[in-house]
Write a structure and sequence with these properties.
Oligomer: homodimer
Largest interface: A-B, 52 and 52 residues
Order of helices and strands of chain A: HHHHEHEHEHEEHEHEHEHEEHEE
Strand order of the largest sheet of chain A: 2-1-3-4-5-11
DNA sequence: CTCGGTATCGGAACCGGTATCGTTACCGTT
DNA sequence: AACGGTAACGATACCGGTTCCGATACCGAG
């Protein structure tokens, strides 16, 4: 097999210098139209694939945007990624996704790895990081955007919603509907800080109204319909008087709803359900489930936009803090006077 | 802000040459234990983040594994990615994911982009590519694994299932159960070649039994519960005599099932349903839906394993072709003698 | 004491591009 | 004809590591 073609080969074939070939292929100025065509033609003929590694080293920059998310399996982050892709679509920037598995140590190593590729930007889910990770982010020579959450102290830019507020609002909504015997089903908090914040806000607001949480169930596994269904069954058996359950995710509330469908419970007459995220999976169910919109797609789009604007202005822009509003929708799984 | 630390700074601080520092940090041989510790300590002290771009350029290789998938939103590819991550976990290799949106032109540019980073391996979903893409894959100087599908002509390694066979098997299963008035709901074929193959195999097998497809509906949008529900409603209205519907994806069959739940149709007495993929979302429903397991996780794991083995043996290993068996499960949505 | 071998380390070339700046050719002006 | 200005192009020095090979030190053996 013959060796991979390099710029020199293109240049030779086009009868120009490497420099001119480089400029021609990058659509850089200072190249005549005819030369440009000659070079591009030559590149095609020998099947030249540029070496971005060399290019990036020399120009001290890459067209990569690092994206750090805790998981791809949760249905929520793919939507964020779509937003990012959408925002980056018209630019030469490419997203590179890494997954942490909700592990801060892993996150640290993933951030180090991404930074070692000198990306044009870094988008990280969440505000909680190890000290080392945080200091790497702070001294990174590219824009850093923390997304999803605004309850905390951002390193630089930040786009998201307040999960504390989301929890409070849902509590207020449920109280408003008249529910008083309320259960909560959520992930083991250490794994998902944002779920914890929602729970905190939720409990606070209930407390403020003099209502205590009737029951509560935490799970360690991944969120799934199955887990939601099982835990709901268990909780309803244990606390038959419940009139409402708040889940840390729509995935779980759908699971709960499946339990109700399977056992003939009426929602919301027998039991009211509310989730979080406003995921796509809520569309198409026999009943619309109450939820809070977390604006995932927009968050991704806006994060991409921030990175792009740095790119355009060639300098640090002032830190952006954009707090979107977590919008509660009642659907048909809550009833006023429930 | 002070300049980013480079290897030279580490070396100076540790009182050794750049070469020794480089070796120490890479756990390369020819460094005494004491020196190694001194260097690593120095690196930590000044917060050294290695520049992989420079490292990759000079060593002519990177620890990246490119992964090309059509979409992340479909619930199916995240599971493949989990398998890949799992398989790569114990190695220094890192997956880099790019999305094509089921567009072969986009796929070509994404492959070019990934190859320009000189990855240690490339994992691509599907066997259908543009000519240019295929020739890039063929001349790539890293292992190339095409996954998901085995109906076609692999460039090098290939891990997947035969979707033709999957379609045939499901047809056989449905015929076996006694269904004769069968409908099909699937994506517009141009987008998803594997769905097309399943359909082809399915139709072939029906034909062989002298059964003609009673109705058929193709959609362009993304698969979703909602689309599945709507199209099912439309099809059942149009063809009231149907006794069974085969969907190109579990996402759609769940949507169909939701329609039945919402309208009080009994599954499988009134209508039988079958999907494809054996997705996680099938767990927890009131009724287990029939499906075919596509072995997504294992496929990802095995693909990673192939890349790793190239890494270990430092040379081309002979092309692997691994055809997994698409396993049909009846669940409760098909009934013998239906 | 000399020699060969091993462990440890350093110098220099190089990987494949790009930034920078200098050079050349060519144009219209005066 | 001399001149200044601009467009197009090329020579050179990097970018920050790693490979390759040679140098040095230290050891036990002869």
């Amino acid at each position: 097999m013959k060796k991979r073609a390099v710029l020199k080969d293109v240049a030779r074939r086009a009868g120009v210098s490497e420099m001119t070939a480089s400029r021609a292929l990058r659509d850089a100025p200072d190249v005549s139209q005819s030369t440009r065509e000659k070079v591009q033609q030559a590149a095609v003929e020998i099947g030249y694939v540029p070496n971005r590694i060399a290019g990036a080293l020399s120009s001290m920059s890459s067209n990569l945007v690092g994206v750090v998310v805790p998981s791809l399996a949760s249905y929520v982050f793919p939507e964020v990624l779509s937003g990012i892709s959408q925002g980056l679509k018209a630019s030469p920037l490419k997203p590179v996704v890494s997954v942490t598995g909700y592990d801060l140590t892993e996150e640290e190593s993933v951030i180090r790895e991404l930074l070692s590729w000198r990306p044009s930007g870094l988008i990280v889910a969440g505000l909680e990081h190890s000290d080392a990770a945080r200091s790497m982010l702070a001294s990174a020579d590219c824009p850093v955007v923390e997304i999803m959450d605004t309850d905390g102290d951002p390193v630089e830019h930040c786009i998201g919603i307040s999960h504390l507020e989301a929890g409070r609002e849902m509590a207020a909504t449920l109280l408003d509907c008249g529910y008083r015997r309320i259960g909560f089903i959520g992930t083991k908090m250490a794994r998902d800080v944002r779920a914890q914040k929602r729970f905190t806000g939720f409990a606070e607001r209930l407390d403020q109204a003099g209502v205590v949480l009737t029951d509560q169930e935490l799970y360690e596994d991944q969120s799934s319909f199955e887990t939601g269904r099982n835990l709901t069954a268990r909780m309803l058996e244990r606390s038959p008087g419940l009139d409402c359950i708040y889940y840390s995710s729509d995935v779980m509330s759908v699971g709960g709803y499946m339990h109700c469908l399977a056992t003939g419970l009426n929602v919301p007459q027998d039991i009211a359900l509310a989730g979080f995220n406003n995921l796509q999976i809520l569309r198409g169910l026999p009943l619309e489930l109450a939820t809070t919109d977390a604006h995932r797609f927009e968050i991704g789009e806006m994060a991409a936009e921030i990175v792009l604007s740095h790119q355009r202005h060639h300098k640090k822009t002032p830190p952006v803090l954009r707090r979107l509003h977590p919008t509660v929708s009642l659907g048909g799984s809550l009833a006023r006077g429930g």
